[in-house]
UniProtKB/TrEMBL annotation:
Residues 548-641 form the MaoC-like domain. SUPFAM superfamilies: ALDH-like, Thioesterase/thiol ester dehydrase-isomerase. It comes from the Bacteria. This is Phenylacetic acid degradation bifunctional protein PaaZ. Keywords: Oxidoreductase. InterPro entries: Ald_DH/histidinol_DH, Ald_DH_C, Ald_DH_N, Aldehyde_DH_dom, HotDog_dom_sf, MaoC-like_dom, PaaN-DH. Belongs to the aldehyde dehydrogenase family. Belongs to the enoyl-CoA hydratase/isomerase family. Residues 12-442 form the Aldehyde dehydrogenase domain. The gene is paaZ. Residues 467-488 are annotated as: Disordered. Residues 477-488 have a biased composition (Gly residues). It comes from Actinomadura nitritigenes.
Amino acid sequence: MVVLRSYVSGSWRAPEDEGAPLHDAVTGEEVARISSAGIDMGGALEYGRTVGGPVLRELTFHQRAALLKALASHLREHREELYALSARTGATLGDSKFDIDGGIGVLFGYASKGKRELPNDTVLVEGAVEPLGGGGTFVGQHLCTPSHGVAVQINAFNFPAWGPLEKLAPAFLAGMPSLIKPASQTAFLTARLVELIVESGLLPEGSVQMVCGDPRDLLDHVTEQDIVAFTGSASTARLLRTHPAIVGNAVRFNAEADSLNCSVLGPDAAPGTAEFDLYVKQLVAEMTVKAGQKCTAIRRALVPAALIDGVTEAVRERLARVTVGNPADPDVRMGALATLDQREEVRRSLKALTDAGRIVFGDPERVEVVGADAERGAFMSPVLLRADDTGRAEPHEVEAFGPVSTLMPYTDAADAVALAARGRGSLAGSVVTADAEFARDVVLGLAPWHGRLLVLNSEDAKESTGHGAALPALVHGGPGRAGGGEEMGGIRGVVHHMRRTAVQAGPAMLTALTGRWVPGTDRTVTDEHPFRKHLEDLRVGDTAVGGPRVVTLDDIGHFAEFTGDTFYAHTDEEAARQNPLFGGRVAHGYLVVSFAAGLFVEPAPGPVLANYGLENLRFLTPVKPGDELTVTLTAKQISPREGADYGEVRWDTDVTNQDGASVAKYDVLTLVAKRPARD
């Protein structure tokens, strides 16, 4: 029998005992054994800190992003093998793709964001420079640097692939190694996933470790530089959050816990409408995908009292068409729960729920299955309840973590919000309606209690990923019972693994520390125009000064006629004099920007390939006929692109008048070629 190994301190380690059995959720056969006996937890964490961390921190964000992309491509080539293992957790092919392809998609998503939204640097500069003194010689800025610890992830059984990958991606991109602790029930899939990662040789040694089995004293060894991320039950999250090492060392702790998520049907969505059909279809999907074993699944279906009979009948009809059984059968639409123990846990929860409502579809104790034994496998019928007495506590407090949902009537938007809030915090909610006013009332009412909200109707239905699908670009987490933490969320998830430090210094020193030119730092003006320099030859602070150029009344009139921008402040002297901001005709802001480009541009072909945008444009002082414009263009940030023959240069642009007053400030973004490679 296969005994799952842990990967720690640079090698695969078999446990020192025979371990506990893990079973196929469909057949009941033993799949593997699992144990962490003999694993040095403290040594594994120290290995990540001293071996994985330093190597990762030497890489830039772009280099880490490229490795994530390569890893995603590698794992994608092994999907069929992972699908086969996933089937042994009770998952259908659709369930497996949801888990495995979803996790790989997170890697691709963070790889893309890292390249597009982060600098090709090891430090992230956050926010604007803050002036701290009146003379401009004392300024401050926030820097984000990787934590010098290990991102410890403790995962749930329901997503053995997506769970570890959604935590690995932002931690790796931030420059922080990970230690993966999979849930035992489905650890055989996670173990193979990590084997594939290690076998690829793509990630630096020490950047990924895995412990299979009981975590034992793992958390005893976490320090103030480590981060712990947990996915699982709310009760376990509470225990871990109060662990002495986590409390004593102020360890950053993120929890994503099961919750009593709701979906609200709008009063406008009567039978026959697209929204009614969408609601019914979504509810049944959330009950049956992964056999309802999703922390985002709809547990409370809130329906207008006048529509609840129609919804009940429509959901029952759709559930009756769901085939339960062996996921290997292409006709099967719902597989097994992860374990027999999990099935018994769902049945126990249902006993509490039936005290407050009645079952209107399904039998918790028996189910007809296709291609399998209903008792040897962890099979269960989808169960729909109806709780007409919404005042009872059970539907708002008890979660049956399986193919179970409860229909509940509400009277108006305020009542729907109040019922949802009784769940005391949820990961995900949805509102199915075409009524924008109702949607606004409910969304704003639900927002304080939910990490994510979907508004579903015929407008977005074709592209919507559905009620329960977490996306790498958006926060996945929720308040209160849902754990109070956040996962992913794009760059927010990356910064979670970094330390934010406020640095106070003089402008020149801050420029040297951040690699970004800070106003107040000396500029370098040379005979050679900066646009004649290749990327490697440019230096932060390189400056071009152009002008002056006089702005005439004819210039303003011509620009107005040529562009069609005949706003009165540019064309009507009498009306413009009445404007308290101008007191007479003024130049168009975009005329000023156009003149500035003409003053700083170097027209001959050279290393500058393209201007691809302006950012942070502000018009500060009106420009009147007779004013003289001068532009100062300073290289602010130089970012080589990994694997490309060009890079990005951000130029601080300051347009001033004859009195030295700034009339416009903005950043110009250019693509600049690197020196040609020698043959």
